[in-house]
Amino acid sequence: MSTEKILIIGSNGQIGLELAATLRKNYGFDNVVCGDLRALDNQEGPFEVLDVLDKDRFHEIVKKHGITQVYLLAALLSATAEKNPKFAWDLNMNGLFHILDAAKEGLIKKVYWPSSIAVFGPGTPRVNTPQYTVMEPNTIYGISKQAGERFCEYYHQKYGVDVRSIRYPGLIGWKSAPGGGTTDYAVHIYHEAIKNASYTSFLAAGTTLPMMYMDDAIRATIELMEAPAEQVKIRSSYNVAGMSFDPEGIAASIRKHIPNFTLSYNPDFRQAIADSWPQSINDAEAREHWNWKPEFDLDKMTEVMLSNLK
Ligand code: NAD
Ligand code: AKB
Question: Which site from 20, 30, 71, 181 is most exposed, i.e. has the minimal number of CB atoms within 10 Å?
Answer without folding.
Answer: 30
